[in-house]
Design brief:
The structure is a homodimer.
Chain A lengths: L6 E10 L4 E8 L5 E8 L3 E6 L5 E9 L4 E5 L2 E2 L7 H13 L1 E13 L8 E12 L10 E7 H9 L6 H14 L4
Parallel strand pairs in A: 4-9
Antiparallel strand pairs in A: 1-2, 2-3, 4-7, 5-6, 5-10, 8-9
Helix pairs in contact in A: 2-3
Chain lengths: 181, 181
């Protein structure tokens, strides 16, 4: 670790937004030279691998403005201030899809793009689902899609799933149902 | 698509960095109301799933400043201006690890965090490797680690791999070797 580490020398805040903060830090490299690092600060997220009793996944389709596309994704979102991750996972699933999960369990965490962001996504398996009512944020427009896991695996292997957390969710769901996770 | 789409009304540039650009756009939502979207523009990346003839993967460990941690990752990077993705994949693998890949093939692409960034990661399988010489960028410090794919799968299922593109790389390598990809 030590011989790879970069030390912060100074930090300049560039933007403090609703979701992200942007800063540029000057760092001392392992060879003693200086460089700059562009950094996005993000509060972290939860993503929900919601499985029905028939081995289907509850997914959402939404327009992702930065990409200009509608993507098929795991239900996901950012915890409220002070909200526990597990509670946030249950809430995001219910808000976006209407499904309440009796059983929720964290299985892993992964950085989404560690070269320039500290965002970490916490993945939860959600089971024992019952349908309540969709209750989205005011500026959220989401369609629910329930798809058989085997079909999703085929789509992922064929390169038809284009959101990284959703690719992970599909492959982890398969491993989970096979008792590997 | 149309009923989920958000239309750009105006755009304000906030930062034009070495790697990323940051802007805040005002958009018209599907319900006619306005909202803002914080957007990172990123040129896109390549990530390399490099497999030896003995079913090992060539990975790298590097300090990721935004996370404050050394992460185990697929070799990856950003194409040079005008550089084809396949060429960039081969170059990044060779620069970071010293391995030249005779056979390189794109298998999928995925957005890393589409809620606020347009970054897409293009995944390549690299095979028929021969060891040349590591040749890193001036401000890059990377250690190479060659690990058996079965061991990596166990680490991924146990939540010990904490970089999303690397989790995908490991699981796609397994699917590829089983003829599913």
């Amino acid at each position: 670790m030590e011989k790879l580490k970069e030390i912060k020398k100074s930090s300049k805040k560039l933007f403090d937004g609703r979701l992200i903060k942007v800063k540029i830090d000057t760092v001392k490299l392992p060879n003693g030279k200086e460089s700059t690092r562009e950094v996005i600060e993000h509060p972290g997220a939860v993503a929900v691998i919601a499985l029905t009793d028939e081995n289907e996944m509850i997914l959402v389709r939404q327009f992702r403005y930065p990409t200009g596309e509608v993507l098929l994704e795991l239900p996901a979102g950012v915890p409220n201030k002070g909200e526990a991750l597990e509670k946030a996972a249950r809430r995001e699933l219910e808000e976006e899809t209407g499904y309440y999960a009796k059983k929720v369990k964290k299985i892993l965490s992964g950085y989404s793009t560690p070269g320039y962001s500290n965002e970490i996504i916490n993945y939860f398996i959600a089971e024992e689902l019952t349908l309540h009512k969709q209750n989205m944020d005011e500026d959220e427009f989401v369609e629910v899609d329930i798809i058989d896991l085997e079909a999703l695996l085929d789509l992922a292997y064929a390169g038809k799933i284009t959101d990284n957390k959703t690719i992970i969710g599909i492959m982890m769901a398969d491993a989970y149902l096979k008792g590997k996770v």
